[in-house]
Write a structure and sequence with these properties.
Elements: E1 17-21, H1 28-41, E2 50-54, H2 57-78, H3 86-95, H4 99-110, E3 116-119, H5 120-130, H6 132-135, E4 142-143, H7 148-162, H8 168-174, H9 180-190, E5 196-198, H10 206-234, H11 247-261, H12 269-274, H13 277-282, H14 294-339, E6 341-342, H15 344-357, H16 363-370, E7 373-376, H17 384-395, E8 401-405, H18 419-428, E9 432-434, E10 437-438, H19 443-454, E11 471-472, E12 480-481, E13 489-494, H20 502-526, E14 530-531, E15 534-535, E16 541-545, H21 548-560, E17 565-567, H22 577-590, H23 595-602, H24 611-618, H25 621-641, H26 643-653, H27 656-661, H28 666-687, H29 691-701, E18 723-727, H30 728-731, E19 736-741, E20 760-764, E21 770-774, H31 781-804, E22 807-816, H32 825-831, H33 840-851, E23 857-860, E24 893-896, H34 897-902, H35 936-947, H36 959-968, H37 976-988, E25 1006-1016, H38 1021-1031, H39 1042-1045, E26 1053-1065, E27 1068-1075, H40 1088-1097, H41 1100-1118, H42 1124-1127, E28 1128-1135, E29 1149-1152, H43 1156-1166
Parallel strand pairs: 1-8, 1-9, 2-3, 2-7, 4-6, 5-21, 7-8, 10-11, 13-22, 13-23, 16-18, 16-19, 17-18, 19-22, 24-26, 27-28
Antiparallel strand pairs: 12-14, 14-15, 20-21, 25-26, 26-27, 28-29
Helix pairs in contact: 1-2, 2-3, 2-4, 5-15, 7-9, 7-14, 9-14, 10-11, 10-14, 15-17, 22-23, 22-29, 25-26, 26-28
């Protein structure tokens, strides 16, 4: 590797094209500010003639601030006043006596509002607008910032035109996994005009060819079948010793052929193979002439066509998709031309075409007149179109073109960035430099990262991308003090005799991370572990993940340990729950006369109406009209004054913010609602969107199929007081004192499930690294797969580099010999393995060799100690939205079973699985159902799962829903087999005397999550306790302490509950409750006797009597001639972990039909007057 010269921001000449590689932490923005100052002083360029381009509005805003500050600091140095930056002092030494230097800096400061610092798109738009004749831009052209709807319309048009006419059998083959939405996504991602779309060629009707050939075979056989039969049966050259041409076997085959010819059977492929000329020659006696006929040759051809059909079908599908994508892009262009609009991509293409059309005149000259130099930030995220513009305008004219970026951090290919554009520029540039000094990290941590990426000389895979080590910048740093004397970089190695399953590794890794965070935070609270003079706090740490799923899993894991954590990966308020709930509210405001939309809006958390309240409105027309009138009032305000005044009115008069502030996550909800109001106001003003258009705009922001141009990061100051869980992509450009990387093994298979069409995107070295996209069906598929996977591994290497360079003081990374990690960058970088998974021995040997250098530690992954972070009084840092003060007791309240057994009233409680056992964490994510975690979250997971499956389906059809539920609740997919087995057993379990199972119960015979309220009598707690003791007598050795805490206010009110499932079978109604309680690690723990004790222990016996009473009332009102004894089948409590009807019959199920007399007795003291007459 040839060392790259260091860039000196003070002395390196700024002539021609300079390419500066700015490794992580080397002060890229600092360098750009210095270059700007030098262009002002030494090149005499006014600020408006220095073009500074970056890729986001946020980045351009930061650059403006930093450059302006550097100009001021330099002026202070020139005037011999105090200054902060060493660079300013160097400028003063060189130019301090020059009045012209001071004049130029002063002019730059005064005229800084003219500075051309912005995004690439703003630059293109300005150039096209100011040079309409050279660019051909229409005078009435408008910029369309959100092309999603137009692109979807284009895809829909093409779909209707090209897909609707397909024959059903052709459509089934061509359209697998393909939808108009997917077409729109592909047209957006793969529709750029410079892409090489593959395969080439034309559609081949292989099915038509086969049909035509079969018709010829039939025709010949009809006309010459008799003579062919004689030839085959009597020709003495054919060997009759083999079974194929023995007469009895041959006659059977020819009879099958006759049946097919006459239309009474399917084509006998076995017979066709026998009658091929190839087979006949094979079965001819030695030195004998083979019988010959056109029919035999055509049979050979039929076999060839049949064998080629799958590959032809594959290529046809690839051609079909390619043609659809091209047609969709063409249609999009037509729609844009018709509407007179341009997208951001159009701006780039128009400007590129204009500058390349006449490289030394026209547009190029106009831009050179405006700008004498260009500074391109984040150059690794450019693409060939952007590079072509700057190369043509500045490089070809010899003007300063200063390109700064880091190809090792090029991780945004999914946004259109192309690292090969950087590599192409690097090849052409004779002036390449590196920024040598890292200003972010501690020296020992810098050495460790250098060591890791120098282990493999081709760590970053691609030709032309090399690793250049950096040095620690000479600066004063805060010190991380820790009595444990932990290495600045620690690899935790998962020890295993064989390759470890990912499902087993992840909870072990998260357990180790959680324990270490608890240790650091506990030490920080005591003052033992400090950064500088401050104890370590949650906001000093980040856990880096690859996917949103991993983020959710990590956040939940930390939360279970009491660690305050926040997900930063999905940090866009447009993805928030408040954004989703605001949509139906806005729909009701737009259509206040639509009662359905009004009810849907009222049912949202934003408006806060319960189902009972909405039901009451349904019976109170004046009250419902008042709510509709409020929405009409908001509608008028929106139309007259705009969305912001309307939302202010809604939030205030509708009590939205007050209601949100009173929730457990009130600070977040209020912040998001206010932020959404700002975003909608900006979207309304910037694009002149009316109410209906603005509503559709917000609706599209939540649809991943539509590209989003709105940067709307979540705002919450208290997020800084939590551990950040953040994706690597999101973390680029950020830094944290302490970083954990438990998922460096993780990567998406580029040709796996996330890419159902198996589309291959790669740069072809035979086409000068032009980006190619193959939709399938090429002959050199293996080569293209290799190139695709090679580029994927290269990007993984870059992601790993970004992850390991975020920390200032310390990094923890988890690694080992891990299953299903073939082709992963860690194997390549740490073990030089591109196509194999290193064994546990090799991993240990390689990592120990790495640690011998002394700058990093390789330790065994610590066992999970299940440490909990003790609760700390947070009154000092509590959010502004506080819990409202207690109000006087309401004589009319709503309570539930959960609140009764807890000894207090609870508003709107959820009756989920009781039990006060501590949460248990599994150590084996791939284990059986007994090792599945226990606690509230697992219980909610199981309830959610059974609420969303159709019991009558085959087990394999549940798999997508199980995967979805595991993802939603943050559990590893390794649990899939155990959960599927549990579901299968539960649905096969026999019920009652009839012995039916839930598989026999269709959706039309079910009511899920049946919510009920009924009015309570004035109750006495002591009397109820005595009644419960009587009905649970003998069920357990000791009556539960909850019995002593039963609380019934001496006031009226309502009892609320939610029945998990009410179902009907053969005319009888049953009540079912799902229970996820963890009673033990075998089916014996769920025996009928043990379940009786569990039912009594948690007062489930009282619960199901309350629920049976409610169901009895419900059925008596809904069924004519209802009879409890005849129509009610019983109540079932299903303890999901313990069900195994085949090997442990009776386990896991508590089933009873309470006596009618008991229900009548309960109704007498429970129900308020008015319901008593119908009880029983």
């Amino acid at each position: 590797m040839t060392p790259m010269p260091s860039f000196d921001p003070v002395n390196t000449p700024l002539e021609g094209t300079l390419l500066m590689e700015a490794s992580a932490g080397t002060g890229k923005t600092h360098t750009i500010a210095s270059l700007f100052v030098r262009l002002v002083i030494e090149h005499g360029l006014p600020v408006e003639r220095i073009l500074v381009v970056t890729f986001t509005e946020a980045a351009s805003g930061e650059l403006k601030e930093r450059i302006y500050a550097r100009l001021g600091d330099t002026l202070a140095a020139l005037e011999e006043k105090s200054f902060e930056e060493a660079f300013s002092g160097e400028m003063a030494k060189r130019h301090g006596k020059s009045p012209e230097a001071r004049r130029r800096i002063l002019a730059a400061i005064r005229n800084f509002d003219r500075a051309a610092i912005g995004t690439i798109h703003s630059f293109c738009y300005r150039m096209l607008r100011e040079n309409r004749f050279e660019s051909g831009l229409r005078f009435d052209a408008e910029l369309l910032t959100d092309a999603g709807l137009l692109r979807q319309n284009a895809a829909d048009d093409v779909w209707r035109r090209d897909v609707a006419s397909l024959k059903p059998e052709t459509a089934a083959r061509l359209l697998e996994n393909l939808t108009p939405e997917r077409l729109m996504q592909m047209a957006g991602r793969y529709g750029a005009p410079d892409l090489q779309l593959l395969p080439e060629g034309s559609f081949r009707d292989i099915d038509g060819e086969l049909q035509e050939l079969e018709s010829r075979l039939k025709k010949i056989w009809r006309e010459e079948g008799a003579s062919l039969r004689i030839l085959l049966c009597e020709d003495k050259a054919l060997s009759r010793s083999q079974k194929k041409f023995k007469l009895d076997s041959l006659n059977d085959d020819l009879l099958n052929l006759d049946n097919w010819i006459s239309g009474h059977g399917s084509l006998p492929e076995k017979v066709i193979k026998k009658l091929t000329m190839t087979n006949i020659r094979k079965e001819t006696k030695k030195n004998q002439p083979s019988p010959e006929h056109e029919f035999f040759d055509l049979c050979d051809y039929w076999i060839v066509l049949k064998k080629s059909a799958p590959s032809v079908h594959s290529k046809n599908r690839a051609l079909f998709i390619k043609n659809l994508v091209q047609a969709a892009r063409l249609r999009e262009s037509e729609l844009k031309e018709k509407a007179g609009v341009l997208t951001f991509d159009d701006l780039l293409l128009r400007l590129r075409d204009a500058v390349l059309e006449d490289r030394d005149g026209g547009m190029c000259l106009r831009i050179r007149e405006l700008f004498g130099a260009a500074l391109i930030d984040e150059f690794q995220d450019t693409d060939p179109v952007q590079y072509a513009v700057f190369d043509a305008v500045f490089a070809r004219a010899g003007l300063p073109l200063l390109l700064i970026g880091d190809p090792k951090q090029a991780i945004y290919a999914f946004r259109g960035a192309d690292v090969f554009a950087y590599l192409d520029a690097a090849k052409k540039s004779s002036n390449r430099y590196t920024l040598d000094y890292n200003w972010r990290s501690d020296p020992e941590l810098i050495e460790a990262v250098n060591l890791i990426f120098q282990k493999n000389p081709k760590a970053f895979v691609l030709e032309g991308m090399e690793f250049h080590p950096v040095k620690a910048a000479p600066k004063t740093r805060e010190i991380l003090s820790d009595p444990a004397n932990v290495s600045p970089f620690t690899f935790w190695l998962a020890s295993s005799e064989s390759k470890m399953k990912v499902g087993k590794l992840v909870p072990m890794a998260l357990g180790a991370v959680s324990d270490e965070i608890v240790r650091l935070l506990s030490g920080g609270r005591k003052g033992d572990i400090r950064i500088g003079d401050k104890g370590v706090e949650p906001g000093d740490m980040a856990v880096l993940v690859r996917s949103n799923r991993e983020a959710l899993q990590t956040r939940n894991f930390l939360a279970d340990r009491g660690i305050p954590a926040v997900i930063h990966a999905d940090g866009n308020v447009l993805d928030s729950a408040e954004a989703k709930e605001l949509l139906p509210v806005l729909a009701a405001i737009l259509h206040p006369w639509n009662s359905g939309k009004v009810r849907r809006a009222l049912a949202t958390g934003i408006m806060g109406f319960s189902m009972k309240a909405i039901d009451a409105l349904n019976r109170d027309e004046p009250a419902f009209n008042r709510e509709s009138s409020f929405f009409m009032e908001c509608r008028n305000l929106w139309q007259e004054k705009g969305v912001f005044p309307m939302l202010s009115h809604l939030y205030e008069k509708g009590g939205v913010l007050v209601r949100a502030a009173g929730t457990g996550d009130g600070e977040r909800q209020v912040t998001n609602l206010l932020h959404l109001a700002e975003i909608l106001h900006s979207a309304e003003v910037d694009e002149k969107r009316g109410p209906e258009v603005l509503y559709r705009w917000l609706e599209r922001q939540g649809n991943p199929a539509f590209p989003r141009r709105v940067e709307a990061p979540l705002r919450l100051e208290s997020d800084g007081q939590r551990v950040r869980v953040i994706t690597v992509h999101r973390s680029k450009g950020l830094e944290y004192p302490i970083v954990f990387c438990p998922f460096i093994h993780s990567a998406t298979d580029v040709l796996g499930q996330s890419n159902p069409e198996k589309i291959m995107a790669f740069h072809d070295p035979e086409l000068e690294n032009r980006l190619c996209v193959d939709f399938g069906g090429k002959a050199d598929k293996a080569r293209e797969e290799d190139l695709t996977r090679k580029e994927a591994m290269a990007e993984q290497a870059r992601l790993l580099y970004v992850a390991l360079t975020r920390a200032r003081h310390r990094v923890y990374a988890v690694w080992g010999s891990i299953n299903n990690t073939k082709g992963r960058a860690c194997n390549w970088i740490l073990h030089n393995e591109a196509d194999a998974i290193p064994g546990a021995g090799q991993v240990k040997q390689d990592m120990e060799a790495l640690s011998k250098e002394g700058v990093l530690a390789c330790l065994s992954l610590p066992d999970d100690q299940h440490l909990q972070l003790p609760h700390q009084d947070e009154s000092k840092d509590s959010p502004v939205c506080c819990t409202p003060p207690h109000l006087p007791a309401d004589p009319f309240r709503i309570t539930s079973f959960s609140s009764l057994v807890a000894g207090k009233y609870m508003e709107n409680p959820a009756d989920r699985d009781g039990g006060e056992r501590p949460v248990r964490k599994s150590e084996d994510p791939g284990g059986d159902i007994f090792s599945f975690p226990a606690g509230a979250r697992p219980g909610n997971f199981m309830h959610h799962l059974f609420e969303n499956i159709d019991f009558t389906q085959a087990t394999q059809q549940f798999e997508p829903q199980v995967r979805k539920s595991l993802y939603l609740f943050g559990y590893d997919e390794a649990w899939l087999p155990a959960i599927l087995e549990m579901v299968e057993r539960v649905l096969a379990m026999p019920f009652g005397e009839e012995g039916f199972s839930l598989k026999d119960v269709g959706l039309k015979d079910q009511l899920r999550e049946l919510d009920f309220y009924y009015p309570l009598n004035i109750l006495e707690s002591d009397a109820i306790s005595k009644w419960v003791k009587k009905i649970t007598m003998g069920a357990c050795d000791h009556l539960p302490p909850q019995l002593e805490r039963l609380y019934f206010s001496r006031s009226s009110g309502y009892l609320r509950g939610v029945m998990d499932l009410v179902f009907r079978h053969q005319g009888k109604y049953y009540l079912l409750d799902w229970k996820s309680n963890d009673l033990g690690a075998d089916y014996g723990a769920y025996s009928p006797e043990n379940l009786k004790g569990e039912m009594a222990l948690h007062l489930y016996t009282l619960q199901y009597h309350l629920y049976v009473l409610a169901l009895d009332r419900y059925l008596s009102f809904r069924l004519k001639d209802y009879d409890y004894e005849r129509d009610f089948g019983g109540v079932a409590y299903v303890f999901l972990r313990g069900v195994n009807p085949e090997n442990a019959p009776g386990c896991g199920l508590f089933f009873e039909k309470p006596p009618l007399e008991r229900i009548r007795e309960m109704a007498g003291w429970m129900l308020a007057e008015g319901l008593l007459n119908s009880a029983g």
